[in-house]
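Sorry to interrupt, but I need a hand with the structure work. Please put the record directly below this note.
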Amino acid sequence: MKKIYSFLALVLALSMILSACGPAEATEAPVVEPQPETTVIPTAVTPALPEGQFVAFVIRSQQDPYWEASRSAVEDKMLEYGIKAEFLGPEAENAETQQTIFANALTRKPAAIVVAPSNPDGITDLINQATSAGIPVFTINTDAPNSSRAFYIGTDNALAGYELGKKFAESIGGKGNIAIFHGSFQSIVDVQRVDGFKKAITEFPDIQIVETIETILPADATVAAITPDFVLESHPDLVGIFSVTGPSAAEVGTALKTKEKCGLIKVFGFGSVHQGVELMREGCIQAFASEKPYQMTSQAIDMMIAYLTGTTDQPKLTDIGIEIVTPETLEAFLKANN
């Protein structure tokens, strides 16, 4: 009997101990204010520029998906070189707004300015002012050849348009009616691409351009942009559509998908956007030309840093060319370009 009482006493004692050691009453977690994201420069990196200096990148349009890859390259190079950089530009392409942004950046005395001119002639005086003030300027994607810029790296847009035009013509068997989705009539890049494309098409006399559409209208335009649906309904005999921009190629591909005409009308364009990639996988876009924005920007920064640190004997012109991407090469292209 004593053993039973002893056992019960032991159980009671253990219960009291466990109760005493139980979980404490829940308390409310402290509220922590979210912290802004910052770019952390690795401490092992010796900054390529003196403390306080920065580089200004002035692009053509913040809305254009083309410049997303360029921004990624800038961010990666900031980490690699331990430099500060600002990615600037108008929301939608506007040459005058871009020039104002360039002029404002110039007043803050950056170590250098990298610019993709919307209007090379319009920004030439500003580039010359910068270099006269000891601030070197480098052009990317589009050149300002009459300015005092240090060097240009990018694409010969007319040649790129010609190369894509040849592939396009071959894909439609060298004959038939086609349409051009031009982009902006005010953009020198778009004009050069179309000029090159038309030069290629003239080598195929059985191809007829039946419509040329401006898909990016000026801010003060009083008419709406013509849609791919309208063009397809107006020209039911089209065999191909050439698009100067990635977004408009995606719009065309979407219209063809809706009408169940993917593959029946060949679509070629410039630049890759997420929707365009998916439409290529579905057979609604047959090819697009990539101007390698990530590689272009990375190489430009390498050359800029070399220039700022004393290596000034670099090529004045560097054409990085284009890569024509097809459904067969798409996945390899995406893997190589993140």
